[in-house]
## 1
Amino acid sequence: MSDDFLKDLLEAEKSGEIDKELLDSIESEKTTYKVDERILELNVPKDKTSRVIRGRFLPKRQGSRNNYIKRYKHVFKGANKKWIDEICPTTFKKDCPICDKNKKMWDAGSDAQIEVKNHRKRDLKYYANFYVEKDDINPENNGKVFILRFPKTIFEKIEKALKPEFEDEKPVNAFKLLDDGANFVFRMTKEKKPIGGKMVEVPNYEKCTFETPSAFMDGDIDEIRKVMESCHNLESLLEGCKSYEELSEKLDSVDSIKIAGESIPKMSNRQGVDDLFENDEDKEEDVDIDDIVNSNNEEDELPF
Ligand SMILES: [Zn+2]
């Protein structure tokens, strides 16, 4: 070791530079989480009361078999405060150790176990390519194609438009580009819902709707081609699903819950994510924060 090096090191100690370095590096670890820039969230920012996004669902891109993707995920903090952020194998109609454990807790039925189960429930989201014509909150999104993450409520609107309730209504296919398709307007407000024992602000999608059918880009083929070429690979969202064994192992590694009823840890509320991420020092880098923030606690066909 050279004398200069040691001299500089000790100088840095005296000046307090070393403390600052350590604090900065701890701070940067805290604020690192995965943000997928391709994904557009249907949320209303904290300081706003509403948001309008007008645009068009896009059909499957070349080489893809899907207009949209349906994906279940588990995102929660385990008993030892480590995070689970994993695709639920039920997405592919396979067995899932987390859902199985939830079922055991559901069957056991104590309040504490049901609370844990609720917190660990799989969360359903749909994904499709979406062209943003106008976003009133983030105009930098205008004219771009994103992977739109949307809840079941919106999917049901797509389904209903395709199979209208009344005879005089014309079916609309959200994924058609020409005259039978239509733009979609997300008019979102906020509402408070009791989730996990406290009132949580969640988006309200009641006023989201299709516009009158019309051809995308006025049917201009060159414009349509340009947009379609910017579509994202939806199938990439289904990569990385762990096997039953791998997922069991991961669950064991974050867990110490005894199903029989002893030692149920106090869980933090997955919905209260704002306080979670402002105050929580234990989060890991690979947690996808949007999965938690946008979990709307919608009804699932599984009770557990
Ligand atoms: Zn599962």
## 2
Amino acid sequence: MRTRTLDCPTCGTMQIFRILDKEERAAVREEEGPGFFVDNLWRCTGTGCLTYYPQFNKAGYGRLPKKFLAEEAAAGE
Ligand SMILES: [Zn+2]
């Protein structure tokens, strides 16, 4: 899994971020429109945090839909 440590605007601290998975990218595209570039989005893995943002553009951050909160639990389904 690709991860990196980035500054999370929601947590207010440095957090481990990982690249969005396929479902997350689809959800963002649904929200932002079909032309939205989703291949370089990173999400915070902090507990209860749904923040994502494009690499090098923290100001362009957004939040994933709540269904992605319980990603660890959902992964086993
Ligand atoms: Zn965060």
## 3
Amino acid sequence: MNNRLPVLLLLLLAAPVGLSPAAAQQAMTEGDMPMMATGIVLPRMDAAAGRQLFAAKGCVLCHSVNGVGGQDAPPMDAEYMDAMMNPFDFAAGMWRGSEAMVALQRDELGDQIELTGQELADITAFVHDAEEQKRFTEADIPAPIAALMMKMDGGE
Ligand code: HEC
């Protein structure tokens, strides 16, 4: 009985979705990422990649981190983020500000910024990571974006 109890439990857990115990266990995680709801896993979030993306995707045109970036929009320093941050709140903030952001992006960049889910996840990790933000400098800004910032500073 001692040995069989865990197996029985697994079978019970797996039964409703019709999976074998092994498959059920695999389905609960994707790599080592926990499943958040049926079929939902969060991606790994890489703040260092986010540092590059924040600049390369042009967020830096309007938002600043570490004093680097535009002043047209709220700064994105970690100190302004919730200590325990729900990444969907960040995305919801983007949704809320989307009208103003898309209009400004069309003005400044000519088009709306394209983002994959992974890219947004990495940017979200970056805005919440005070240590990674200390590494953010002008040197992270690719030349085309830097040129646009100069143009904006010049007062369009
Ligand atoms: C062209 C300017 C511009 C660019 C580029 C831009 N934003 Fe914004 N963003 C804004 C403005 C302006 C607001 C404020 C909108 C409002 O208050 O209605 C805003 C608001 C936000 C908010 C909500 C902030 C809050 O306090 O609720 C988030 C989050 C955000 N932006 C993230 C991003 C990210 C991430 C990127 C890059 C992928 C980005 N933004 C690119 C101008 C920009």
